[in-house]
Amino acid sequence: MAKITFIQHNGTEIETNGIPGMTVMETAIKNQVPGIDADCGGACACATCHVYVEAEWTDKVGARNPMEEDMLDFAFDVRPESRLSCQIKVSDALDGLRVRVPEKQF
Amino acid sequence: MAEHFETDAVIIGAGPCGIFSVFELGLLDIRAHVIDILDRPGGQCAELYPEKPIYDIPALPIVTGAELTQRLLEQAKPFKAEFHYNQMVTELAKQPDGRFLLKTDGDLSFLAKIVVVAAGGGSFQPKKPPIPGIEAYEAHSVFYSVKKMETFRGRDVLIIGGGDSALDWTLNLQPLAKSLTLLHRRDEFRAAPDSVNKMRELVAAGKMQLKIGQVTGLKGENGVLAAATVKGSDGSIFDVTTNAMLPFFGLTMKLGPVAEWGLNLHENLIKVDTEKFETSTPGIFAVGDINSYPGKVKLILSGFHEAALMAQEAFHHINPGQRLVFQYTTSSTNLQKKLGVA
Question: Which residues in chain B are contacts of A76 at CB distance < 8 A?
Fold first, then answer.
């Protein structure tokens, strides 16, 4: 188990238990985290699972892949710490991960 | 152009489940028209993942969304369904004679004995960027598609995006706009390289501008846009003069008019039974991702099963009292004739 915290736009924090091997997006959907729409179900094809990775975690989470970089063109307010949560795999190394959910995916 | 059709069945949605419904209904001699909001068949398979492999279609260990769509169309071909694209069904109402009247936003109308809602996640609609106050400009200055190019003649056009829609409209509108700026969040484009090259030539010739950044705010009065405030990739803040802005951020799915057809819904999905996949209105069925029942699994293969059972009840609805003899395509000459193989 890896604890993953989703910080809502209004500051509310939702703590979830991520299962290694699942994605951060799947963890959000399983726990009904508001603001993660995931229209395409994890195919990296819609950019509606956009999150901002908290500064202390960006290194551990790693860089965007090229497909994800393209797909982020469809997201709004993309920042250096932007990731698509369907492209982040949960692992023990990410225990404690904190990501912020944008006000609106679209 | 207003057109009217009378038919056995109207299928709303040309995704995999909609196309397979053509096949299952066709085997029972039920002719169908198919309506879709996109400009091509495939639904999510076409719009979201045409090139991405699907691994859980029975007997196809790996198939792309585009190939699955092509194969389904080929399978359904003998039944000569008519497809109507770029049409959103806006109205669905039962008529006194028991048939259903459907109207689309493109002025088509249909009278059908049964209706199959195979609308997936709803209708694909352009994503509207959540820029504060953008709604106020949507009537006059903000557009999510180009319906008439003339709308943009002589205006200061701002196009946002880096895909084919953004680049194609940049090239098409540049000659008639007063000024044209293309804004994208990075200096790399997903669009066809040829379009990108042509755009860069126009920039080099001073005929348009390319800016790298993202819109953070809008300025204007009384619904008329004057400028968009942009945060550049280098952190600088600047204004781009525009009175006609076209954001191209792809499409998203909205339930849309389905919610207004008087069908019982559950969490924005249409409730059906698991014997006939019929909605709360007899004669209206729902298959695929749009329906809801205990144990529902949103897989394409579930929709195929649902279409087969739906077709049985559709037959009884259209031919009351008539016995339906179950037949296999492997052995029935009758079915093989319909498929054009016997």
Answer: 129-131, 214, 249
Structural domain contains residue A106: no
Record the tokens describing residue B47, joined without a space: 């719009």
- pLDDT digit string, tens, across residues A20-33: 999 999 999 999 99
In a domain, A66, yes or no: yes
Helices (H), B214-298: none
Span A48-102, pLDDT tens digits: 999 999 999 999 999 999 999 999 999 999 999 999 999 999 999 999 999 999 9
Q: Does residue A105 lie in a domain region?
A: no
- Within this chain, domains B3-124+252-338 and B128-249 share the same CATH topology: yes
CATH of the domain spanning B128-249: 3.50.50.60
CATH code, domain carrying A26: 3.10.20.30
Q: Which of B49, B185, B253 sits opposite A73 (nearest CB)?
A: B185
- The answer to whether the Cβ–Cβ distance between B249 and A74 falls below 8 Å is yes
Q: Which residues of B19-36 are buried (b: 16+ CB within 10 A; e: fewer)?
A: bbbbbbbbbbebbbbbbb
Chain A contact present for B214, CB below 8 A: yes
How many independent structural domains does chain A possess? 1
pLDDT tens, position by position, B247-261: 999 888 888 899 999
Q: Does the distance separating the beta carbons of B49 and A45 come in below 8 Å?
A: yes
Which domain, by its residues, includes A65?
2-100
Q: Measured between CB atoms, does A106 come within 8 Å of chain B?
A: yes
CA angle B120, B85, B314 (to 5 degrees): 55
B252 reaches A (C-beta below 8 A): yes
Structural domain includes residue A85:
yes
A92 HSE (CA, 13 A, CB side)? 0
Does any CB of chain B come closer than 8 Å to the CB of residue A7?
no
CATH T-level topology, domain B3-124+252-338:
FAD/NAD(P)-binding domain (3.50.50)
- Residue ranges covered by each domain of chain B: 3-124+252-338, 128-249
pTM: 0.81
Residue B13 burial (CB < 10 Å; 0-12/13-18/19+)? buried
CB contact under 8 A, A78 and B185: yes
Distance (Å, whole) CA B99 – CA B117: 15
Say if B49 is an interface residue toward chain A (CB within 8 Å). Answer: yes
